[in-house]
């Protein structure tokens, strides 16, 4: 890849959300914003190799996208109507309250995550508008057909326009009711960045994890006493801290038990542990912890151990037992079984995993977990078959490389 191609890829990762958010604020139309941003990046692909990369790529892209949007509106037969409609959106949008955080991307995520939209539509729209993921990438993350996903995003944008959903951060009294859905979406955006589902993308999308953390920090500034906001931020920080050791130089995923813990980001771990301690103090005072707080506590146990052998697995299992009462999903049960394997042995864990087959047969991590447990029990033939199935279902290239190596090590 040439230097210019790398600059364009980096600009897309770093500037897409900012450009789309700025255009949405100006024109009040997600379609106009998205298409103009895409045209601006297409223009960069054409012009930057000859004209050189501009000193400020973000400013260049925003300016170009604004011109593209204006040109498009002028070409429309109903130009005046579109201008009036856009103006009406802003005339009806109350001014931001004093002290509100002025960030276009924060406004955009509250728009994309409006409760009038179905949850999957909110996630898909956020991944598209803020994450810059393509429809095929999002479709793979949802395990659905691209045409279905495209229709879902189109309907969500149409609903935002028809219902005149305002482009702003909700008022203080409305924030608590709105924030839960936003946290769910941010967690999914972070997960897509930490272990990308697409085979043709970077295995780890640092731009997505960074943006998810940044937006969660902004929401924490809006709601400093919300335990789940603090919990999600701690969870993200403790997970992101392990990213430098997550993928090997050869491009293979490095699992937790094989990671170089000296490469973990000590600053992020310290901040994450501080947030977890704050929530533990609240729990001791009688405040019941939520899902993200428990997940953060589990990650705090992992990042407190200097070696995988020092992990307090009994505490991890106890925390998963708490989590099961809040979230009885098969994914949580699978992760609990992985911890049980370390505490009670692989045979007990395998029995728990096998009970999840009906619900997780299409999930690669289910088969990868079975493969590992069968390997530990000396059942090489069954383990190889499970690895084959996991490799078939996995989309992440680094994860596929790891699974392939583990399978090939079997005799």
UniProtKB/TrEMBL annotation:
Q: Which SUPFAM superfamilies match?
A: Sigma2 domain of RNA polymerase sigma factors, Sigma3 and sigma4 domains of RNA polymerase sigma factors, TPR-like
A single Gene Ontology biological process assigned to it is: DNA-templated transcription initiation
* UniProt key word Transcription: yes
The RNA polymerase sigma-70 region domain extends over: 18-78
Q: Where does the record place the DUF6596 domain?
A: 178-278
Q: Sorted alphabetically, which InterPro entries does this protein's record hold?
A: DUF6596 (IPR046531), RNA_pol_sigma-70_dom (IPR014284), RNA_pol_sigma70_r2 (IPR007627), RNA_pol_sigma70_r4_t2 (IPR013249), RNA_pol_sigma_r2 (IPR013325), RNA_pol_sigma_r3/r4-like (IPR013324), TPR-like_helical_dom_sf (IPR011990), WH-like_DNA-bd_sf (IPR036388)
- GO-annotated molecular function: DNA binding; sigma factor activity
Keywords, alphabetical: Sigma factor, Transcription, Transcription regulation
Keyword Transcription carried by entry: yes
- Indicate the transmembrane segments per the record: none
Where's the RNA polymerase sigma factor 70 region 4 type domain?
Answer: 109-160
User: Which family does the entry's similarity section mention?
Assistant: Belongs to the sigma-70 factor family. ECF subfamily.
Q: Which NCBIfam families match?
A: sigma70-ECF
* Stated name of the protein: RNA polymerase subunit sigma-24
């Amino acid at each position: 890849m040439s230097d210019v191609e790398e600059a364009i890829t980096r600009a897309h990762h770093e500037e897409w959300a900012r450009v789309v958010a700025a255009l949405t604020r100006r024109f009040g139309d997600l379609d106009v914003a998205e298409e103009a941003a895409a045209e601006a990046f297409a223009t960069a692909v054409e012009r930057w190799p000859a004209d050189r990369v501009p000193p400020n790529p973000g400013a260049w892209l925003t300016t170009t996208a604004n011109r593209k949007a204006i040109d498009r509106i002028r070409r429309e037969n109903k130009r005046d109507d579109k201008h009036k409609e856009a103006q009406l959106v802003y005339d009806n949008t109350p001014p931001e309250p004093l002290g509100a955080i002025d960030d276009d991307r924060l406004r955009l995520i509250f728009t994309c995550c409006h409760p009038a939209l179905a949850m999957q539509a909110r996630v898909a729209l956020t991944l598209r508008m803020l994450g810059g993921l393509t429809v095929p990438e999002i479709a793979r993350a949802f395990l659905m057909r691209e045409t279905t996903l495209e229709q879902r995003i189109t309907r969500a944008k149409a609903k935002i326009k028809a219902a005149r959903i305002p482009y702003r951060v909700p008022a203080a009294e409305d924030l608590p009711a709105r924030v839960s859905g936003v946290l769910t979406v941010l967690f999914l955006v972070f997960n897509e960045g930490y272990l990308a589902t697409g085979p043709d993308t970077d295995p780890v999308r640092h731009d997505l994890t960074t943006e998810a953390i940044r937006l969660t920090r902004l929401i924490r500034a809006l709601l400093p006493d919300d335990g789940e906001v603090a919990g999600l931020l701690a969870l993200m920080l403790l997970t992101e801290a392990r990213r430098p050791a997550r993928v090997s130089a050869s491009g293979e995923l490095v699992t937790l038990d094989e990671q170089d813990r000296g490469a973990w980001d000590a600053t992020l771990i310290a901040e994450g542990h501080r947030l977890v301690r704050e929530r533990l103090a609240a729990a001791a005072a009688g405040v019941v912890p939520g899902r993200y707080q428990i997940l953060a506590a589990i990650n705090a146990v992992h990042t407190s151990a200097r070696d995988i052998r020092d992990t307090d697995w009994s505490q991890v299992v106890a925390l998963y037992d708490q989590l099961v009462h809040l979230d009885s999903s098969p994914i949580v049960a699978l992760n609990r079984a992985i911890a049980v394997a370390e505490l009670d042995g692989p045979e007990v864990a395998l029995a728990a995993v096998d009970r999840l087959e009906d619900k997780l047969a299409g999930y690669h991590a289910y088969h990868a977990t079975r493969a590992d447990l069968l390997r530990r029990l000396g059942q090489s033939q069954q383990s190889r078959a499970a690895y084959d199935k996991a490799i078939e279902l996995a989309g992440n290239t680094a994860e596929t490389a790891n699974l392939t190596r583990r399978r090939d090590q079997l005799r």
